[in-house]
Design a protein that fits this description.
111 residues; mainly alpha; 4 helices
């Protein structure tokens, strides 16, 4: 056996001994087990928390949209309740109301 083969053999032994030391390390095993357990098997696992975070973001977006819609409706309500011309326009547009001497024609867009 020449010197190079001895060094290669020693390197392989030292690498395998290093892996054996890592695998036998009880703290590493427990840590890896804990991370895997918390990530996939626990009730509050990573997948579930990610889904909850996405839902919370969607709820925040919905909340902002609803707030803007409420502001629009409140502004329209205030406008309708204070101006007689707006009340008349609203009744004509929404409920197709008309005066007794008028005819109303409704044009619907084809889909």
């Amino acid at each position: 056996m020449d010197e190079k083969e001895k060094n290669d053999t020693l390197d392989e032994i030292s690498e395998s001994a290093l892996w054996l030391r890592i695998v036998k390390n009880k703290y590493l095993i427990v840590t890896v087990f804990f991370i895997v357990w918390m990530a996939f098997f626990d009730n509050n696992n990573w997948v579930y928390l990610k889904r909850l975070t996405e839902e919370a973001g969607q709820k925040r977006t919905d909340r902002a949209w609803y707030k803007s819609e409420i502001e629009k409706v409140n502004a329209e309500y205030k406008n309708i309740t204070t101006d007689l011309n707006t009340i008349e326009r609203f009744g004509r547009e929404q409920y197709y109301m008309k005066r007794s001497d008028e005819d109303v024609y409704i044009f619907l867009a084809e889909e």
